[in-house]
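Side project, low priority. Logging it here so it doesn't get lost.
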Amino acid sequence: MAVYRLKIYLEDNEDIYREIDIQSSQNFEQLHNAIQEAYKFDKKHAASFFVSDDYWRKGQEITLRAEDLPADDEDIRKKRDPKKLMSAVKIAKYIEQPRQRFVYVFDPNAQWTFCLELMKILSDDPKMTYPACVKSIGNPPKQYKQTQVAKGELTPDQAMAAMVSDPEPEEEDNIYKNLKTEEHGIDDGDLESLEGEEGEGGEEEDMENAEGEEEGDEGFDAYGDEKEED
């Protein structure tokens, strides 16, 4: 039995990619699951494969969910071929050329788009379990960190994880309210008391000192010598 080796990479980042071996008799749903596992996604959204030409133009659509099979207005307007179900279509059916290409779109809202290209055709290895990820280059992107997902689409666990991983900074007022002034600062009462102490008697003391200096200077001239009496 033939085994297809497919290179799968993000549409906008070819440096992060996976290579997956899959048997010709296996179906597109099995390939979908293998991609999800290779990129550590959660399998919770709709997905479709599109048979592609050399220029990555989308052709026949092979969708994951039966409810997505009915044609929509755009399909009717563009006279597209009826969609097919992943679980019902074998990989071999759409391997039409040596470098066959597919486009894989996961989660219509986030639009995770991957390019798939047939790299080589191998012989079946009876010791191997297919499909199998045989090469992994680069860290997978974070599924929800890089996309704007509506709150209604997140499970409670995902929503909590998002809150923990991306907390909002505290407002400045709240930060100051949380400070323990009795240990690290001066409260308003202490501050008023200090201001009162500094202000009391300040001017009077200055005047007294000045008068004392004048009285003490009466018996001396400008050079500090005693004045002679007339």
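Brief comment: Residues 172-214 form one domain.
Revisit when time allows.
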